[in-house]
Every structure is written in C-alpha cells, then in structure tokens.
Specification:
By secondary structure, this protein is mostly helical. 52% of the residues lie in helices and 10% in strands. It has a 3-stranded antiparallel sheet. It starts with 13 loop residues before the first helix and ends with a helix.
C-alpha cells in the first residue's frame, strides 16, 4: 500500500515549505509520516482481534495468543503490549516481522543441521 501524504500533514515549519533548501530540525521523512498516519490501522486491540489476524476464525485462537505472550520462552514471545491495565494489544507490522523472524530462525536451524 502506498500512502499519499499531503505536505501539510508532515507538520513541517512554514520556512521549510517556502524555502525547501533551508535546514529543518524537525523535518520527518515521508516514510515516518506515512507510518504515523497508518498507525490507527496497524493496532489490534484485544486477544480476539489478534487471534483473528493470526489464526482466522479457528476456535482456540484466543488461548493460543495468551500462550504465545506468556508461556513461551522470552525470545520467542509474541510482541504485544498493554493499554491501560488490561487490554492486550499488538501491531500488525510487529506480528508480521515476528513471524518472518521465526521463519528465518527455523530456516537457519535447518541449514545448520544439514
């Protein structure tokens, strides 16, 4: 998905818009601005949402999420955080990166064994 970012959404100082060559101490990159704008669609709130994202509508997905956040050794835990006291949350992008890291580690193990 390519995000379109309006110049005023970057919160650049007016001098940077008028004088593009002027150095700006707070000039975010387009990627940073796109990430900030896309954050609302990246957050999963609650174990149920995380389970549906990862496992679909399979029964037992919620329990798997809780197991992956607490009962698994620390380096292999699902990347989550809590909002407030109770709400378990995760970022879709972090979960996808975590899955890719797990796959890469498993591939490296297979290569090392052969």
């Amino acid at each position: 998905m390519i995000a379109t970012v309006r110049e005023d959404a970057l919160n650049l100082p007016n001098s940077s818009r008028c004088y593009p060559d002027a150095p700006s101490p707070v000039a975010p990159t387009i990627a940073q601005a796109a990430l900030a704008l896309d954050l609302s669609t990246d957050i999963l709130q609650g174990a149920d949402e995380i389970a549906v994202f990862m496992f679909g509508d399979n029964p037992g997905g919620r329990r798997r999420v809780y197991r992956l956040t607490s009962e698994v050794p620390a380096p292999f835990r699902l990347p989550t955080f809590k909002l407030g006291n109770n709400t378990l949350c995760a970022r879709k992008s972090s979960i996808l990166r975590w899955i890719a890291d797990q796959e890469a580690a498993r591939s490296a193990e297979k290569v090392a064994l052969t």
